[in-house]
Amino acid sequence: MATTATDILESRILLYYCFTPIEDPVAVMLWQRTLCEQLGLTGRILISKHGINGTVGGSLGNCKQYTRKTREYPGFKKMAFKWSEGSAKDFPKLSVKVRDEIVAFGTPDELKVDANGVVGGGVHLKPEAVNKLVEERGDEVVFFDGRNAMEAQIGKFKNAIVPDVNTTHDFIKEIESGKYDDLKDKPVVTYCTGGIRCEILSSLMKNRGFQEVYQVDGGIVRYGEKFGDQGLWEGSLYVFDKRMHMEFSNDAKQLGHCKHCEAPTNLFHNCVNEQCRKQTLMCDDCASNPATAHCGSEECAQVGAQVAASSG
Ligand SMILES: [Zn+2]
Ligand SMILES: [Zn+2]
After folding, report:
1. Is 291 exposed, middle or buried (CB count within 10 Å of its CB: 0-12, 13-18, 19+)?
2. Which ligand sits closest to the CA of 286?
3. Distance 288 CA to ligand 1 centre (A)
4. Using H for helix, E for strand and C for coil, what is the string for 80-123?
5. DSSP-assigned letters across all residues of 125-170
6. How far is CA 156 from CA 6, 91, 151, 297, in A?
7. Model pTM?
């Protein structure tokens, strides 16, 4: 294929994952690292015996070549790449690593994958099918947030249950706690940003007796692309890059409130305490004053007061 000026001048980011058995993750890691180096791509790629999860950026032409070459690996043939505006500058380095898990749920031996993906996961629902399920089954349908609780502070599906998790590691304890046992015979729709976390979460839930589990295919991103703010999604989407959040339209509801003064805000700031740094929703006013730029814990409030006193 010929290289065009656009291919060289424009840059893109690729987001992708694939669950497929990988017999030799180290070999795949070395191949991927070499491929990215040859194409001048930067970003972060994780490989485990269950598959691959990556975000890389570079010139449009080199990204195209990357997708072609990567699909040459038999298990990756059907991998869907999500193209996004942005450039390699968003990721200064290249990191390609082998891990026990491509998403850290702490269940590397429980997760089973075959050539078709995760074995025993929730039924994939396209955005239209999500709405249809809710139309047909009404309030019986429960949305179950598959992200960290913090992410749901600024946006979630209508009436969703937000489990008490700081990281994906907390999910097992949470779904085994008994708190959600009344959902075990209800239709439960799990969702996360792009779908990868629910591939795993939905299978872990089914293994623990949740009978009717679904997952939003392509996650909130695909649902939002289809229905914007006119469907069952409400608010902003937390994203793991410099933007911190995004909206699907100007009609997005504002769900987030400043931890300190309750003013509406969608923006997370790090706690002023360098030992904490917890991402906390704060309005610009509260975030710009060290005395209020803390996460809410007593210890961090004290550190904030000290910083304010020494700088004031
Ligand atoms: Zn405030
Ligand atoms: Zn703190």
Report:
1. middle
2. 1
3. 10
4. CEEEEECCHHHCCCEEEEECCCCCCCCCCCCCCEECCEECCCCE
5. E-HHHHHHHHHHHGGG-EEEE-S-GGGGGSEEETT-B----SSGGG
6. 37, 28, 8, 25
7. 0.91
Going from the first residue of the chain to its last (312 residues), give the mean pLDDT of each consecutive group of 10, the final group possibly shorter. Answer: 78 94 98 97 97 95 97 94 81 94 97 96 98 97 97 97 97 98 98 97 98 97 96 94 88 94 94 95 95 95 94 71
- The catalytic position among 18, 36, 63, 192 is 192
Q: Please, which residues have CB less than 5 A from ligand 1, an ion?
A: 258, 260-261, 263, 283, 286
Taking the CA of 295 as reference, the closest ligand is: 2
Dihedral, CA of residue 271, residue 272, residue 276 and residue 282, to nearest 10: -10
**Euclidean distance between CA atoms 171 and 266, whole angstroms:** 25
278 vs 224, 262, 295, 307, CA distance in Å? 27, 18, 6, 17
Determine whether 286 is an active site residue: no
Cα–Cα distance for residue pair 102/106, rounded to 1 Å = 10
Burial of 151 (0-12, 13-18, 19+ CB in 10 A): buried
